[in-house]
Amino acid sequence: MDKSKVAAVIEQGSKLVFRPTPDFYAATNINRKRWGLIYSGKLEPTASEVGKLSKYFGIPVTNFFQ
C-alpha cells in the first residue's frame, strides 16, 4: 500500500515511522482519529493543518504539495 503524501513528506530520508506523542497532538491541534485518517491517506489535511504540520516538523509547506 502506498503511503499518504503526508506520511511520505514526514518520513522522507528516514527509516523510522513517525509515532505521534501527546505533545504533537497539542501542538498541531489535530486529534488522534483525524491524524490517523490523514496519515493513512484516507482524509486530506486542511490548509491550516498543513501549516501546523509544516511548523511542527520544520518542513516547508510546499513539500506537502509536490
What is this entry, summarized?
This protein is mostly helical and 66 residues long.
The biggest beta sheet reads: none
The general outline is globular
> How many whole angstroms does the radius of gyration measure?
11 Å
Return the domain count: 1
Could you spell the SSE succession in H and E letters? HHHH
Give me the secondary-structure category: mainly alpha
Count the E strands.
0
State the helicity in percent bands: 40-55%
Distance between the termini: 20 Å
Q: Strand content of the residues, in percent?
A: under 5%
Features:
66 residues, mainly alpha
Structural summary, described in words:
The mean pLDDT is 89. The protein has one domain (5-59). It contains four helices and no strands. Helix content is 50%, strand content 0%. With 66 residues, the chain is an all-alpha fold.
Secondary-structure blueprint:
Layout: H1 5-11, H2 22-28, H3 32-39, H4 47-57
